[in-house]
């Protein structure tokens, strides 16, 4: 395993400005997303709220989903799904769009990935604050179970990081991977327990809980944030193992393919 990890990790504590540099890049990237918009950072809140309203009208008002506190239930699924898709879809072309950073500076490619994903983490924090306020208004109060969300978030971060590495390196070989991933994301949205109750999938398509790691992440997040319950530890361990395997594959691809990025691009 150690030979798969680049010097990025082993030199982390010896380059004191590395963490600061990554954090600065993440903040800049997050701000640049909304820089030219009149409402600026307000769009970080407007986008998820508008999606929630749209899905609420369709699935609660028109289709009458029988889920208590459906808006909060929906928000819990959407904020995690949006983080995953933003991280993965947003980094498919990262080795092309950020080529100048790793070619003309001493910045390691992994720094660029981490900074990009951290910019999405900033957006997730905004959404989580709105979620917690909405949950409190709906009568769902904080509990000690919230601490378990740390493990769920780590699971989601590792999964998003691994998938980002795989997609961006495959993009160097197959430019169609962007279009293919968009199709996968479209199917994944409706095959994840975002709009529906998680138990519907468990009863009818149990294998999806294991085939689609986002399902377990969303269900566990709702357990700890909404239902004041422990996560499904078996599912959490499986999802962490799944995410770790994907991350290892991503690091292998990064080591094998990315050194030829300039040539392939």
> What shape does the CA trace take?
globular
Specify the biggest β-sheet.
none
Percent of sequence in beta strands: under 5%
Count of beta strands: 0
Poorly predicted spans: none
Helix/strand-derived class?
A: mainly alpha
Give an account of the 3D structure.
By secondary structure, the chain is mainly α. The chain is built from 14 helices and no strands. The radius of gyration is 19 Å and the shape is globular. The two termini are 29 Å apart. The model has no long low-confidence stretch (mean pLDDT 82).
Helix and strand topology:
Layout: H1 7-10, H2 18-32, H3 43-62, H4 70-90, H5 94-97, H6 99-104, H7 109-137, H8 149-173, H9 177-190, H10 198-204, H11 208-211, H12 213-225, H13 233-257, H14 261-264
Helix pairs in contact: 2-7, 3-4, 4-7, 4-8, 4-12, 8-12, 8-13, 12-13
């Amino acid at each position: 395993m150690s030979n798969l990890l680049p010097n990025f990790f082993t030199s982390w504590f010896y380059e004191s400005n590395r963490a600061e540099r990554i954090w600065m890049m993440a903040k800049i990237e997050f701000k640049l997303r909304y820089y030219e918009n009149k409402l600026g950072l307000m769009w970080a809140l407007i986008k998820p709220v508008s999606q929630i309203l749209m899905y609420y009208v369709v699935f609660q008002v028109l289709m009458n989903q029988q889920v208590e506190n459906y808006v909060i239930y929906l928000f819990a699924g959407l904020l995690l799904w949006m983080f995953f898709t933003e991280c993965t879809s947003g980094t498919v072309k990262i080795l092309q769009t950020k080529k100048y950073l790793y070619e003309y500076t001493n910045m390691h490619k992994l720094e660029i990935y981490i900074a990009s994903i951290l910019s999405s983490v900033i957006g997730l924090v905004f959404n989580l604050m709105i979620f917690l306020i909405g949950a409190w208004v709906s009568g769902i109060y904080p509990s000690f179970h919230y601490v378990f969300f740390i493990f769920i978030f780590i699971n989601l971060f590792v999964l998003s990081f691994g998938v980002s590495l795989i997609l961006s390196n495959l993009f160097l070989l197959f430019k169609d991977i962007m279009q293919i991933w968009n199709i996968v994301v479209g199917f994944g949205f409706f095959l994840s327990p975002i709009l529906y109750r998680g138990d519907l999938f468990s009863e009818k398509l149990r294998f999806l809980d294991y085939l689609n790691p986002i399902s377990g992440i969303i269900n566990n997040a709702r357990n700890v944030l909404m239902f004041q319950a422990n996560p499904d530890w078996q599912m959490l361990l499986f999802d962490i193992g799944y995410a770790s395997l994907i991350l290892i594959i991503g690091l292998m691809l990064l080591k094998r393919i990315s050194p030829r990025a300039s040539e392939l691009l």
